[in-house]
Each structure stands twice: as structure tokens, then as C-alpha cells.
Amino acid sequence: MNREQLQLYFIMGSQNVEEHDPIVVLEEALRGGITLFQFREKGENALTGEDKINFAKACKALCKKYNVPFIINDDVNLAIALDADGVHVGQDDANAIAIREKIGLDKILGVSTHSLTEVTAAINAGADYVGIGPVYATTSKSDANSPAGTILIEQTAATYPSLPIVGIGGITIDNCQTVIRAGADGVSLISAIATHEEPFVATRQLLHVLQQVAKIS
Ligand SMILES: C=C1C=NC(C(F)(F)F)=NC1=N
Ligand SMILES: [Mg+2]
């Protein structure tokens, strides 16, 4: 995985799209040019069992059609079963070292981090990128920490300049440039695309704004 692939990292599950069809939303986002996708099926009405597997397979097939890596959140066994391109895990999921051993070196491993200590541990576990947030207030994650702003992104970029970083949490077209200027390689988001009337348009607009402000290398 190269750090440019983090530029516009869309995360979605069936619960994030209000009255829209999640498969249509994903195809529109892919057509619009998202650079990475995370399948994140969780929450009280999340799909389970065969429904979840079939939904994941449909999302994976769409990502393949648009040549965008397909990442699965939390569910390492599903990621292996579907031969996903990688997994994203949080601090409360299994130990990242064990997960790296389980998925192998050719899969993408992303880790959520909330402190420099957790960033260092993620690096030692062999993470390909770290997610840092929530930068701003989010409604997409019920158990999110309180918004931390961009300070940890700045500290991490300064301490580990070669570590790919993606910011997450309440990111919109209005604040995404601030996140990149702080040192993130990209932004990850759910609602800014998933709840937009026109996910294709939302994606194009976000990319346009993000392309104005490359990471200060
Ligand atoms: C809780 C999360 C934190 N960060 C990320 C990512 F953006 F992929 F790094 N994904 C998550 N699901
Ligand atoms: Mg998790």
C-alpha cells in the first residue's frame, strides 16, 4: 500500500446510508474516485451471518471493478475468508501483532490509534497505516473518544514522518484540508459521502478540495 491510497478513504456499512441502497452508494463513491474502501458492518441493526457475507462479497466485487483496495473492519476471519486486501482493527480488537501474523505480510493492516504510545505499538506490530481520531465530533461511531483535533496527527507526522496517517472523525469538505495540512496523508469518512444525496458529486467535490492541498512533504 502506498500512502497516496489513503487520500480519500471511504468507510461504509449498511447502517450508514439512510434510505439509500448501500451498493449504489458504494458504486457512486467508487465512480467518483475514492482511493480506498473499508467495509464496516457494525451497530445494532448490522447485517450478520450470510447476509453480512453476501453484502461484503458484493462490496468487494465493486472495489475490484474499480481497482480500489477492499479493507474489512474488525472481522479478521471474514477478511481471510473473502481474501480481502486488508483489515482495520482498533485497540479493543485482537492484538495487532497476532493479526499481522494471521493475515500475512501481503495484506494491508490498519490500526486505530489515540496516542503516540498506541502509534508506536502499531508500528511495532507492522501496521501499514494508522487511523488517528476522532479529529472532530462524529455521529458515526457510538463509542468514539471525544474529539481530539489535529494535535496527535501533527505529533505523529513529526515523530514518524514515514508512517502513513489517515485522519478520521467528523471530516467534511470544510475541514478536510486542515487534516491534510496537519500531516495526514488522507482523510477517512462515512457520512460526508454515505448520507449525501449524490455520493458521486460528494466524492468529486472532496477529491477536488483534497487535491488543492497535497501533504506538505
Ligand atoms: C475506528 C476507525 C479508525 N480509523 C479508521 C481508518 F480510517 F481506517 F484508519 N477506521 C476505523 N474504523
Ligand atoms: Mg474495532
From TrEMBL:
Top EC class of this enzyme: transferase
* Binding positions (2-[(2R,5Z)-2-carboxy-4-methylthiazol-5(2H)-ylidene]ethyl phosphate): T138, T139, S140, G170, I190, S191
Can you tell me which residues bind Mg(2+)?
Answer: D74, D93
Q: Which PANTHER family match?
A: THIAMINE-PHOSPHATE PYROPHOSPHORYLASE (PTHR20857), THIAMINE-PHOSPHATE SYNTHASE (PTHR20857:SF15)
Similarity-based family: Belongs to the thiamine-phosphate synthase family.
Which function does this protein serve?
A: Condenses 4-methyl-5-(beta-hydroxyethyl)thiazole monophosphate (THZ-P) and 2-methyl-4-amino-5-hydroxymethyl pyrimidine pyrophosphate (HMP-PP) to form thiamine monophosphate (TMP).
Q: What is this protein called?
A: Thiamine-phosphate synthase
**Organism annotation:** Viridibacillus arenosi FSL R5-213
